[in-house]
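Re: beginner question about structure tokens

> Can someone show what the tokenized structure looks like for a real chain? I only ever see the sequence side.

Sure, here's an example I had lying around. Input first:
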Amino acid sequence: MKRQNLTLFLCFLFVSPSWGQMDAVQQFEGFNLQGYTDEGEKSWDVVGDTADIVGDMIEVTNVDANQYGEQEMNLKARKGIIDKVTGDIQLEGNVVITSIAGGKLTTDSLTWQKEQDLVSTEDPVEIMNKAFKAEGMGLRARPGLKVAQMNKNVKVKVKTDLEKKESRIVTVTCDGPLEIEQLENMATFNKNVTVFQEGRTLKADKMVLYLDPETKEIDKLICLGNVVIIQGGNETYSRKAVYSAATKKLVLSGRPKLIMVSEDDGGFGNFDMGKTDL
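And the corresponding structure tokens:
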């Protein structure tokens, strides 16, 4: 299963410019600002239809901003409020962030606190690219540390076998939060986790997903607490389940129990296992 990095789109925000001194109240049509690196290369730009400047605050309508360089991003919003002193930015109305790699984030509002390196919203958030789509309520991310958290009501759909014409879909839901650590190549789903794929269902209190650093494919899954696996009429119960992509084995531990449908009489057979490979 291939996954794109869930947090690459969060590193979109440009370095706040040095605004200098301005009058108390100013209004502009066709607002346009640009920033350059020490080498003279363009690093960011911000375009807006209008800009109202009152004291230390700049309110820009129809924001269209770009970051250039290694992580090229485009940001659009109906309104942006910029604090000239802190560099903090509040975006409101149809906020859309698109990365050059094809990732997209959409939400109704977004706040970036520069000094805290914190991007956040309490509104519904949708994140998607060609490999996955994630939905949830609220977001907190620290782009500099490459960590992010989708707060609650999380639903993630992942496409597998992308090279085939008909890829399969794996759906993961949880109450949240979903925690992503890019540098560790891991994501943690919390509270009432459910994984579904083509008639197979896995449930657990918590699931930790590890990606291979090179291929970004799933390397390991660790499911913890009240683990239930359902396939057809067969069910397994355990306290912990670990799946390894290398061995393609699922190891159950914590007094695992298997309930199987008997082909002879349609009844169930119960099997207690100390530890097993499936």
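Each token stands for a local structural state, so reading them left to right follows the chain. The two ends are 19 Å apart (CA to CA).
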